Amino acid sequence: MRATARGFTLVEALTTLALAALLLALVGALLVGGKRHGAGTESAVDAAATLRLAAELLREELRLAGAAPWPRPAVVPGVPDVETWLAVPLRLTAAGDSIQVRYVDHRLLGGPEARDLAFEAARDGAGEAQLYRRQAGSSRQPLVAGVERLVVREVVDAAGRLLPVDLADGLRVAALVVDLVVGASTAEVLVELPAKPLAVVAP
User: For a 10 Å CB count at each end of the chain, is N or C smaller?
Assistant: First the structure.
């Protein structure tokens, strides 16, 4: 007597389908989690690179605050008295979120040039965060995209004391402690300056 072929019962088929669906859901969750983790890692790497670039640009510009090359240039266009012009104090807004500096830039091929600059973090017309540099009399120039905040948290005076910004008005300042914020990442940047007075001005 020949044995008859036996197929899947309805219960077995439904059980197999349920197990396959569960397996697919687990694989999908793993793929989505891996993709999110990869995107998070990429975002953290991008934020770190943005912070490094912004910190280096600020250091490069601010270390020249109140400085001119030596020997002093005999002629700087637009500045009849270089020493008096450079003696104007470094200025911050009362909230410490904007830095204004002046110096003689001798790195240009056309010769020394007087620079009166402000640095601030703000949003552009499209709502994107930017670190801006603005030269006196000109529109602001975006320096680094993605920088949401620039805050001068503390200053180091010429005697080496760490002081809050609001207690440093009129003192000679050797360095600024600046917080830069990109997304969820914050970098504390120490910017050394030629020691010069600091003026805290109203926003």
Answer: N
DSSP string, 29-86: HHHHHHHHHHHHHHHHHHHHHHHHHHHHHHHHHHTTTT---SSPPS-BTTBS-HHHHH
pTM of the predicted model, to two decimals? Answer: 0.74
Name the band, by pLDDT with cuts 50, 70 and 90, for residue 63: confident
Residue type, 38: G
Query: Predicted confidence band at 91 (pLDDT cuts at 50, 70, 90)?
Result: very high
Closest Cα partner for 140 from 161, 154, 123, 157?
A: 123
Q: Residue 176 corresponds to which tokens in the numbers above?
A: 């600024």
Query: Is beta strand 141-145 parallel, antiparallel or unpaired with respect to 90-93?
Result: unpaired
pLDDT (average), residues 111-136 = 91
Report how far apart, in Å, the C-alpha atoms of 151 and of each of 78, 92, 94, 169, 178 are: 31, 10, 11, 16, 6
Between the CA atoms of 73, 79, 80 and 85, what dihedral angle is there, to the nearest 10 degrees?
-90
φ/ψ (deg, to 5) at 102: -145, 145
Burial class (CB in 10 A: 0-12, 13-18, 19+), 151: middle
Q: How far apart are CA 158 and CA 168, in angstroms?
A: 11
Nearest to 80 by CA among 103, 118, 117, 114: 114
44 alpha carbon, distance to own chain's centre: 14
Q: How confident is the model over 32-52, as a mean pLDDT? A: 77
